[in-house]
Design brief:
Number of strands: 3
Shape: elongated
Number of helices: 8
Structural class: mainly alpha
Oligomer: single chain
Distance between the termini: 34 Å
Helix content: 55-70%
């Protein structure tokens, strides 16, 4: 992704709080980046062509798409080299320090679910049960990796069926497959 498009996408994520239902003026995003209107429009058009930005009105209101949110999160993760890869280890219990990072991942998954990015009907109830299982394990003094692994595996499968091309299921598979 070219730098202007990347900068626009990251600013859009910031302004919408990562909520695909919130809209903002593409020109306001450009103004915050110090750009003139044509520059903002060009960056937005490039991101629209990739499916990362959705037009909400002809006057320039745009929203971040779920794919755009995933791309922005991936950009932010790539820019943060201080964190080692998120992986469940082979030990029976979760390693120290992993809990907060898994809670951040849960927030990302919940945001996706709340924005309509999860499975429908019975699969959604299964999805919710898996999330509650993970939350319960993370609240335990000794969270069990096997339980966490299976709940994340189920979520990855459900997300993978719901949104082809979404990077989140691949991240979850990396999380669970690395220690098994």
């Amino acid at each position: 992704m070219e730098d202007p498009s990347r900068r626009f996408l990251l600013q859009l994520r910031k302004e919408t709080g990562g909520d695909p239902s919130r809209t903002v003026s593409l020109y306001e995003i450009g103004r915050q980046l110090g750009w003139q209107r044509p520059e903002a429009l060009r960056a937005a058009e490039n991101l629209m062509a990739e499916g990362f930005v959705e037009v909400r009105s002809l006057s320039g209101a745009v929203a971040i798409s779920r794919a755009g949110l995933s791309a922005a999160e991936a950009e932010l993760a790539a820019a943060s080299p201080a964190s080692p890869p998120l992986r469940l280890g082979p030990a029976p219990v979760l390693e120290n320090g992993m809990g907060p990072r898994l809670l951040d991942l849960l927030r990302e998954i919940r945001l996706r679910l709340d924005a309509g990015g999860g499975p429908p009907g019975d699969r959604r109830r299964e999805f919710e049960a898996d999330l509650r299982t993970i939350e319960a394990q993370l609240g335990s003094p000794r969270p069990k990796n096997a339980v966490l692994r299976e709940a994340f595996r189920s979520i990855a499968e459900n997300l993978g069926e719901a949104a082809a091309g979404d990077p989140l299921p691949a991240r979850l598979r990396s999380l669970i497959d690395s220690g098994a």
